[in-house]
Write a structure and sequence with these properties.
Distance between the termini: 35 Å
Largest sheet: 6 strands, antiparallel
Helix content: 40-55%
CATH class of the largest domain: Mainly Beta
Radius of gyration: 19 Å
Strand order of the largest sheet: 1-2-9-4-7-10
Number of strands: 10
Order of helices and strands: EEEEEEEEEHEHHHHHHHHH
Number of domains: 2
Number of helices: 10
CATH topology of the largest domain: Jelly Rolls
Strand content: 15-25%
Amino acid sequence: MKQEIRIVKYDAQLKVEAYHFKGIMQKFPNHFHEYYVIGFIENGKRLLSCKSKEYIIEPGDLLIFNPRDNHACEQIDGKTLDYRCINIQPEIMRRAVFAVTGKEQLPYFTSQVLFHNELVVVLRDLHQMLMQEEVCLRKEEVFYFLLEQLIEEYTEQGISTNILEQNTKITAICEFLEKHYMDNIALEDLCNLTGLSKYYLLRSFTKQMGISPYSYLETIRIEKAKKMLEHGVLPIDVAFKTGFTDQSHFSNFFKKFIGLTPKQYMNIFKDARN
């Protein structure tokens, strides 16, 4: 069995994260992130589900996820995965877009998979510099060049700060879950909030958001947990503050989504702060 490699680097110069997962077969369940993800596969073939569409992705394909683009993936060729990506928080993306275009806007990328795209070479180069923790002008140049190319070719003309176009009741559910993520929320609570039946609520929410209300709540909890861990809050305290019943459940759940244990994730940012 090949050894698994799971590396995360935080780059203080660009203020982005770089992930490298190698030698893994892990299936990642349906989830989303609060940030942009730009990545590629170096080895392995995966079935990607994103916003109710399915793609077969392989080496040479470039992936772009907007904040809250729900997605899941699993290996389909029996080979281990070698996946690399950079994560960009919306406020960092906004600054980068302003530097590139002179406009205070958030981009909305219309294509989540760019098959056999030549920009993979550029992203690989940038990712390598991030992994090696290089501090140089060239790294910044490559970063902005990559974003410029992606924004020019793969975003809508009318860039919107409100990426999600939702109806009022679905918006109300999302806001409720984001506000009360620490609580033990029942489906009845969401029905009382919106006046919808349980069946219609589940069907409408899942159709519009691509994931169920519970999966949405799970993802919110994980995103909140990540921010706490980044600021040095201990995993046992994070578990309690994000609505998990115990630390063991939290640790298993966190690793299923992120590919790292809470402690491993916390230590990445501990090293960066030191």
